[in-house]
């Protein structure tokens, strides 16, 4: 009995000696129609956390602590995301990560505002890596929410610069998912096109149910019949992959101006038909040409060697790095202290080997960063060293927008605790 008691005491001592992890709740659709997009995000977050933990974790006054990612599967629905949010709060997790759906992000912001007001001793922060509907850092801004992706108007401005400069394009078709983000992209694209090239014709607008269309051929046929030479879409996940696949099958001879056309199966789905015709906009892509960028991307591919796991975004890496930086600056994991440390914080890219940079604008919690518009090409062609997802097709830069030029005015009137 004495030996057993000693063993139990030793085990308890060892457990107590282990530093408590700083938990991050990833609330995302990890199954269902957009499960591939959720799992792709999870890989990015895990890789960022692994690198920080390899450095010893986050340094706090009582000693270093590791980060830990806790998965919460929202199954792609807002109701389930809110249920998962409650579970995360019940577990006293102080940092919530989400992004794949602006409608879900808006609901989480509202829920978090109420939770933090109701339970000030258990407040949490929301770190958003890809919900880009502009109101989230404008009219619906919150002290407890930080967006690390360029919002839709910032991305669209870069895309429309390239589209309107292409004088061969006279007719444009707008198509998007029928929810807040998709609706906004269609509306804002129409507005920007009218401002920048009044002579351009918008020959069609379409909103379709999100995540429910399995056959986009009728949509592709309608676009083809319109005579459109360019298509603008904010579609993501399978809704984009299936759309461009249908365009190829329909023989649609048009350029696609997309937010997310360089990943999640899109290059392989459209194949050679996409060369010089599919464009995407992002804060970074593998073929920027900088040695640091090459090393960064190569390291990720060594960690996740399967071609279907090829989905790396610098903003997600910057987000986790900046969270760790803010926790250390605050000397605490308390939500309000970390939020104040994030406000105005700069990211110089050193933690990523010199890749990416930006600053968190304090007034609205919108991350200001460079953007690249890139165009699909065959791997090995000029400016296209790396392909995407083993498809044989990659993207080369056609326009680089420095961070200062991406910045737009905001309409945030933030309440601070």
Automatic annotation (TrEMBL):
Q: Which residues form the signal peptide?
A: 1-17
The source's domain of life comes to: Bacteria
Extract the SUPFAM superfamilies matched here. Answer: Periplasmic binding protein-like I (SSF53822)
Q: Which organism is it from?
A: Caldimonas mangrovi
Similarity-based family: Belongs to the leucine-binding protein family.
Please list the residue ranges annotated as the Leucine-binding protein domain.
Answer: 21-377
Write down what this protein is called.
Branched-chain amino acid ABC transporter substrate-binding protein
UniProt keywords (A-Z) are:
Signal
The taxonomy runs: Bacteria, Pseudomonadati, Pseudomonadota, Betaproteobacteria, Burkholderiales
Q: Which InterPro entries match?
A: BCAA_transport, Leu-bd, Peripla_BP_I
């Amino acid at each position: 009995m004495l030996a057993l008691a000693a063993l139990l005491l030793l085990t308890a001592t060892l457990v107590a000696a282990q530093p408590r992890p700083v938990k991050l709740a990833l609330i995302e659709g990890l199954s269902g129609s957009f499960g591939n997009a959720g799992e792709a995000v999870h890989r990015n977050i895990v890789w960022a956390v692994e690198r920080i933990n390899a450095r010893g974790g986050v340094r706090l006054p009582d000693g270093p602590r590791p980060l830990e990612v806790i998965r919460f599967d929202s199954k792609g629905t807002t109701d389930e995301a809110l249920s998962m949010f409650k579970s995360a709060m019940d577990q006293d997790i102080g940092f919530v990560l989400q992004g794949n759906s602006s409608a879900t992000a808006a609901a989480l912001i509202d829920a978090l505002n109420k939770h933090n007001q109701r339970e000030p001793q258990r407040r949490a922060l929301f770190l958003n890596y890809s919900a880009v509907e502009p109101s989230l850092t404008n009219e619906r801004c919150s002290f407890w929410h930080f967006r690390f992706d360029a919002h839709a108007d910032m991305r669209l401005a870069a895309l429309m610069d390239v589209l309107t400069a292409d004088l061969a394009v006279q007719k444009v078709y707008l198509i998007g998912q029928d929810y807040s983000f998709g609706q906004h992209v269609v509306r804002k694209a129409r507005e920007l096109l009218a401002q920048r090239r009044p002579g351009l014709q918008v020959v069609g607008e379409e909103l379709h149910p999100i995540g429910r269309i399995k056959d986009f051929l009728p949509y592709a046929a309608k676009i083809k019949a319109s005579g459109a030479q360019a298509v603008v879409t904010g579609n993501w996940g399978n809704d984009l992959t299936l759309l461009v696949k249908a365009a190829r099958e329909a023989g649609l001879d048009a350029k696609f101006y997309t937010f997310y056309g360089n990943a999640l199966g899109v290059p392989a789905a459209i194949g050679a038909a996409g060369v010089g015709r599919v464009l995407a906009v992002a804060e970074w892509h593998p073929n920027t040409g900088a040695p640091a960028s090459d090393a960064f991307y190569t390291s990720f591919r060594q960690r996740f060697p399967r071609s279907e796991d090829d989905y790396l975004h610098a903003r997600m890496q910057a987000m986790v790095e900046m969270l760790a930086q803010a926790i250390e600056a605050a000397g605490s994991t308390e939500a309000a202290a970390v939020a104040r440390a994030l406000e105005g914080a700069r990211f110089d890219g050193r933690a990523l080997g010199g890749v990416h940079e930006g600053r968190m604008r304090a007034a609205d919690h919108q991350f200001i960063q460079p953007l690249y518009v890139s165009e699909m090409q065959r791997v090995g062609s000029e400016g296209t060293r790396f392909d995407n997802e083993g498809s044989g097709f990659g993207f080369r830069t056609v326009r680089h927008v420095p961070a200062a030029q991406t910045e737009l005015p905001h309409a945030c009137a933030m309440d601070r605790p």
